[in-house]
Amino acid sequence: MTIPNLVGAGLIVIGAGIGLGQIGGKAMEGIARQPEAAGKIQTAMIIAAALLEGLGFGALILGA
Predict the structure, then answer these.
(1) 33 in a structural domain
(2) 38 lies in a domain?
(3) DSSP label of 2
(4) How far apart are CA 52 and CA 21, in angstroms?
(5) What is the pLDDT of residue 64?
(6) Predicted local distance difference test score (pLDDT) of residue 4
(7) In terms of C-beta distances under 8 Å and separation of at least 24 residues, what long-range contacts does 52-58 make, across chains too?
(8) Residue 8 has what pLDDT?
(9) pLDDT (average), residues 2-14
(10) Higher-scoring residue by pLDDT: 42, 6
(11) 56 in a domain, yes or no?
């Protein structure tokens, strides 16, 4: 791997980490505000996190 590829891979991982943190944090805020909707919020959070991780892995593979 060249240096630009390594920098790009690092940025991808950082971006995915920030996105996952935002998803988790906002989901916890939503559950704290409406505990009765915890199941729906958790399901949506897991789907969004899985899509984000898939996008991050795909970008890493394409960038390598």
Answers:
(1) yes
(2) yes
(3) -
(4) 11
(5) 67
(6) 87
(7) 52/16, 52/19, 52/20, 52/23, 53/16, 53/20, 55/16, 56/12, 56/13, 56/15, 56/16
(8) 86
(9) 86
(10) 42
(11) yes
Residue 47: is its pLDDT beyond 70?
Answer: yes
For residue 64, give every residue at least 6 positions away whose Cβ sits within 8 Å of its Cβ, in sequence order, or none: 1, 5, 9
Q: What is the CATH number of the domain that holds 23?
A: 1.20.20.10
- The encoded tokens of residue 54 equal 């898939």
Domain of residue 47, residue span: 19-63
Q: Which of the 8 DSSP states describes residue 3?
A: H
DSSP of 28-41:
HHHHHH-GGGHHHH
Mean pLDDT of the 7-25 span:
91
Q: Are 19 and 62 in contact (CB under 8 A)?
A: no
